[in-house]
Amino acid sequence: MNSNLCDTCVNYVYDDEYEEYNCEVNLDEDDLVRFLSSRYESCPYYRSDNEYAVVRRQM
Q1: Where are the domains of the chain?
Q2: How far is C-alpha 35 from the geometric centre of its chain's CA atoms?
Q3: Is 41 helix (H, G, I), strand (E, B) or coil?
Q4: CA-CA distance, 16 to 34, in Å (whole number)?
Q5: How far apart are CA 36 and CA 31, in angstroms?
Q6: Cα distance between residue 10 and residue 32, in whole Å
Q7: H helix intervals, 8-50
Q8: pTM above 0.70, yes or no
């Protein structure tokens, strides 16, 4: 998976306790295995952090 996509994802947040970024998506066991084995072409849980896209939809 492209880590650049993670940088722009709403689910990728900074954890002050561990001082690192983590994905907050809660995967079940099957999804985690598929995700780690790279069977996904792209992350199915990716949501853009682009605030302008949200505003455009509201207009």
Answers
A1: 3-58
A2: 12
A3: coil
A4: 28
A5: 8
A6: 19
A7: 29-36
A8: no
Q: Rounded to 10 degrees, what is the CA torsion of 10, 16, 19, 21?
A: -10
In a 10 Å sphere around its CB, with 0-12 CB exposed, 13-18 middle and 19+ buried, how is residue 49 labelled? middle
At 14, phi and psi to the nearest 5? -85, 130
For the stretch 10-50, pLDDT in tens is 999 999 999 999 999 998 998 888 878 876 677 888 888 77
Predicted local distance difference test score (pLDDT) of residue 37: 84
Report pLDDT for 59.
Answer: 58
Residue 43 CA from chain centroid, whole number: 7
d(Cα 30, Cα 39) in Å, to the nearest integer? 11
Which residues, at least 6 apart from 22, have a Cβ–Cβ distance to it below 8 Å?
12, 13, 15
35 token code pair:
């995700």
